[in-house]
Amino acid sequence: MVQRLGETYQSVLSVLKCALWNTGKASVDPEAFRELKHHAVSTLPAGVLSSLTMPEKMRAVWQQEIYQQISYNVNYRHEQAALPVSVPYVILKGTSAAKYYPHPEYRSMGDIDIMPQRKDYAAACEELLQNGYLESTGEVARDFGRHRQFRKNDIEIEVHSFFAIQNNQEQAALLDQLILDHISSSHELPDDINGLVLLDHISYHMEEGLGLKQIIDWMMYVNRCLPDEMWSSFQELARRTGHEQLAVITTRMCEIYLGLSEHHFCAHADPAVCEQFMEYILQCGNFGRKQKADEDSMVSKNFLTSARTVKGTFLFLQKRGLINWKAAKKYPFLRPFAWLHQAFRYLRKGLRRKGNMEKLKAEHEVALRRDRLFEALGVTREGKGIVRYQDGKYVK
Fold it and tell me: Are 241 and 174 in contact (CB under 8 A)?
């Protein structure tokens, strides 16, 4: 099965297995190195870099980039430890995912995500502002209300009012309540709730594109916290929050392609779905980074995947319109018409593309395959309506 992924991707997976399990040998060429960077996992081989076969000039460049990322990680942890937030909160992802790695310092860090109690949300944000953090919340994030963003010392902080991104109101409410119920002075969640957070993060980002970093977060969690004897208790939580299918298939995929030891609870997962899932991840890069290089094609595929219903079409157009229409960002009264602006934008782009019908047909086939994959995984779909917490309740 791995052979079908191509030599570059085989090399990427071999390097990661060497890095995470300290087994075997691997050769790396510049293309594989680029892929590792696309997926935000190029720091993971730091401990085995000297044993990998590659051009020496590339090794020197790679080593320098590893030093830079580790330096950022050190600053990240320092900033996190010194957060001027006095109200209780919990840390989501980031260091809460890195602790399951054999070398937590090698996992690349992005934003610092925290979630306080809802009654403390405004106070947590105000404390950051009072201590020199600048707010950087974008228009779409502000409208959705899930979090506010702040920046200081080149580190981004996201303060969440809610975390779960689901199509189902009860499932979203349950996951958020599990997080809120376990906020403590340690700022850490219990392992089982942490696992649900990692799955929900994968589910939320599937449509825009997901990289190996988020998959490896889950794999290292399973390796440390989810032996077969612990599955039945976790399975119940995963079922109730809508993540059981995703947990099973992702774990089996990690066994097949990334060297995770085998677990009985995922043995029944369809290998064909696992293969399609891995192919999709490899083609995306971290948060769709690789897809964005071909933005027109990516948006077309996302539109075809989302536009299964009138509501799904409207929601997709409205979201993209709010992102792309500068006038709507400046003048709030225009925002309800963002979907119309986006529809005309797509029409203009479609007319300019060469080989319109051939490309559209190919993208439609890709969208159908993606749709079947997402259904098999049971992940969140924008076209089905996203739940958010608003005015004391969860609404679509």
Answer: yes
User: C-alpha angle with apex 370: 365 to 374, nearest 5 degrees?
Assistant: 155
160 contacts 147 by C-beta, under 8 angstroms = yes
The kind and range of the H/E element at 246 are: helix 244-258
Residue 268: how many CB atoms within 10 A of its CB? 8
Angle between helices 295-306 and 310-324 (to 10 degrees): 150
Do β-strands 112-116 and 155-160 pair in parallel, antiparallel, or remain unpaired?
Answer: parallel
Residue 180 and residue 118: Cα distance in Å, rounded? Answer: 8
Distance CA 5, CA 185 (A): 45
Report yes or no: 196 and 175 within 8 Å, Cβ to Cβ. Answer: yes
Mean pLDDT estimate for the chain: 88
CA pair distance 213, 97, nearest whole angstrom: 10
Q: Residues 251, 268: contact at Cβ < 8 Å?
A: no
User: Which of 82-96, 290-304, 324-338 has the weakest average pLDDT?
Assistant: 290-304
Summarize pLDDT for 30-81 with one digit per residue, the tens.
999 999 999 999 999 999 999 999 999 999 999 999 999 999 999 999 999 9
How many CB atoms sit inside 10 A of residue 351's CB? 8
Instruction: Say how many C-beta atoms besides its own lie within 10 A of residue 23's C-beta.
Output: 11
Calpha distance 194→198 (Å, rounded): 6
Place of tokens 């090698």: 106
Interacting residues of 265 by C-beta distance below 8 A, sequence separation 6+? 228, 231, 235, 248, 251
Cα 240 to its chain centre, rounded Å, is 21
* Joined tokens for residue 225: 């916290």
d(CA 155, CA 109): 10
Asked if 131 and 84 count as a contact pair (C-beta separation under 8 A), the reply is yes
3-class secondary-structure state, position 90:
strand
- Give the torsion sign (CA, 208, 213, 219, 221): negative
What amino acid occupies position 156? E
Collapsed DSSP state (helix, strand, coil) of residue 257? helix
Residue 284 CA to residue 278 CA, distance in Å, equals 10
Q: What is the pLDDT of residues 341-382, one digit of tens each?
A: 888 776 776 656 555 556 656 666 777 888 899 999 999 877
